[in-house]
Amino acid sequence: MLSIKNLHASVEDKEILRGINLEVKAGEVHAIMGPNGSGKSTLSSVIAGKEEYTVTDGQILLEGEDIGDFAPEERAHKGVFLSFQYPVEIPGVSVTNFMKTAINETRKAQGHEEMPANEMLKMIREKSELLEIDRKFLSRSLNEGFSGGEKKRNEIFQMAMLEPKLAILDETDSGLDIDALRIVANGVNKLRSEDNAVIVITHYQRLLDYIVPDFVHVLYNGKIVKSGGKELAYELEEKGYDWIKSEN
Ligand code: ADP
Ligand code: MG
Ligand code: MG
């Protein structure tokens, strides 16, 4: 699904990613952990194609295709989803209407016709039931006055509707409460399948109590310095990051 080879990236002439190698196969969930400032959010931004980052070396392949030169929208249309892509508040535009527009724009960019209204409604109904999202929520104005949990619910709903091949959830928000964690975890667990892959980026082990990853990687100083199974997350919980820092 995703193959990252020797990825180097800079921001404002400062090298942040210093040779990342990562293989993510369909059906897998990978967690990327690491101390603050190690480059986790930079990695997700670079995969999504955010323009303030410059790739100076290496490759990002999605299903074998080098997407390194693609604009963020093109990557999204190819099936890359990054959480918090649409954090904007849009008064007067409901969660549902925003979603309809996003879906149809994606389809147009992929050369498909708009989704017929009845099919759209059916999909909205199915996905919202799957994620236990109630109707009242769907008619609220996008992100207006949303709590942390509601923002997460909206984000997971977007992910469910867009059915990405590769979903990257960057859980930067240290203020995530248990409810919000459960919403994210529940959504990921319901949406994970043999046809998609998920990368969960988190500073905290706690999220991984709910989303059980197949692989855990530790990013430190712009490199993946350790990889393992889910037990690595527990080891980090117990020992912190200092031993990683002293080894590298
Ligand atoms: P993490 O998500 O692991 O906490 P980040 O990727 O946010 O780490 O940051 C890694 C380093 O890159 C930090 O030193 C941060 O200050 C720097 N950095 C990230 N994005 C930018 C940016 N847009 N402009 C300047 N520096 C940045
Ligand atoms: Mg940070
Ligand atoms: Mg971050």
From TrEMBL:
CDD domains in the record: ABC_FeS_Assembly
Checking InterPro entries in the record gives: AAA+_ATPase, ABC_transporter-like_ATP-bd, FeS-cluster_ATPase_SufC, P-loop_NTPase
- One of the record's GO molecular function terms: ATP binding
The alphabetical list of record keywords is: ATP-binding, Nucleotide-binding
Database matches in Pfam families: ABC_tran
Q: Which Gene3D superfamilies match?
A: P-loop containing nucleotide triphosphate hydrolases (3.40.50.300)
Q: Where is the ABC transporter domain?
A: 2-246
NCBIfam families this protein is in? sufC
Name this polypeptide is given: Cysteine desulfurase
Q: Look up and give the organism this protein is from.
A: Flavobacterium subsaxonicum WB 4.1-42 = DSM 21790
Q: According to the entry, what is the taxonomic lineage of the organism?
A: Bacteria, Pseudomonadati, Bacteroidota, Flavobacteriia, Flavobacteriales
Q: Which gene encodes it?
A: sufC
